[in-house]
Amino acid sequence: MNEIIKKLREQFESNLSEAKDMDSLESLRLDYLSKKGKLSDLMKELSKVPGDQKKEAGMLINSFKQEVISRYDSKKAQIIKFQEDLLIEAGESYDDSMPTERPIGSYHPITLVQRELEDIFESMGFDVEDYDEIVDDYHCFEALNIPKYHPARDMQDTYYLTSKNQLLKSHTSAAQNAILRKYGKALKEEGRPIRAVFPGRCFRNEAIDACHENTFFQMEGIMVDKDISISNLIYFMKTMLSQVFGKEVTVRLRPGFFPFVEPGFELDIQCLICEGKGCSSCKDSGWLELCPCGMIHPNVLKYGGINTEEEPYKYTGFAFGLGLTRLAMMKYGIKDIRTFNSGDLSSLSEFISR
Ligand code: DAH
Predict the structure, then answer these.
(1) pLDDT value at residue 102
(2) pLDDT per residue over 167-176, tens digit each?
(3) Candidate from 291, 300, 320 with most ligand 1 atoms within 8 A of CB, to mutate
(4) Nearest CA to ligand 1 atom 14
(5) DSSP conformational letter for 248
(6) CB of 187 within 8 A of CB of 153?
(7) Which parts of the chain are beta strand (E)?
């Protein structure tokens, strides 16, 4: 048996040294280690060995088999390493701790605009609030002075849930009542003015096109204190917009109707491209409609638990509803509103991460 194994070892070593790639190594494995391979044949030889030598011969065959397996394993590792070295030499590099190659992400353009506005408002003493997307009829409409069957409801058709009078909020104004209630106590007891912005996702049952989406973002803001007037509203809007656009902006107010403000306005900014002369961006008017706003209607303040009578203090306030989606379109020159929810990374990843 010793002789047979010796010969087979020589043959195996010579075959092994000839195997230069995975294919030839695999045929070598089949040749020696498979069921029909040379080592199985060797085992069959065992039957011819005299009984008293069987044990020793069996041990020899087994240790030779282990030797073949371990020589095969180290040759396999050697070939893999050799192939990797070739790739590295050819300029390929890789980090084997990385599962896959992933591109670096970037923030969504609406997130960028939202964060920028939050910073600006925080620097002006505003609190930033988060609010639910599912609300009830009372908060979305009635607390905003829009009773049931009021025609103003037609402008904001949204999605209704089958349970508990709930719906997807059609505007961020739906949070006004909760914010007034949350901060009203500090206003009355400590004289701390209510100053809050609340960004959020809104929903409307819209026919979708390049300018209309069923899902979009707004940022609502309110300020309530003693003696708040339209001048305060104009000052805050002008300061905030000058920071957003990085230069002094000129604003104007036009009358606008919203049941929750009285008086209500549409705030326009003078076109930044033509400086009011008229161009294609402002449809030759020199102005861009940017943000509806107004003085909070006394009913809305009352529903929010804020006193509107002279005694002990008469509180007033302003509110505005900025279209974050619209602002992002203006700021980044996005022509089609559907880009935002498209999940199309090649369009959305153009925006630098921060
Ligand atoms: N919530 C209104 C909408 O989505 C926008 C709005 C108008 C908000 C006037 C306000 C406001 O705060 O004062 O159409």
Answers:
(1) 64
(2) 999 999 999 9
(3) 320
(4) 171
(5) -
(6) no
(7) 127-128, 134-136, 166-168, 194-203, 215-226, 251-255, 261-270, 287-296, 315-323
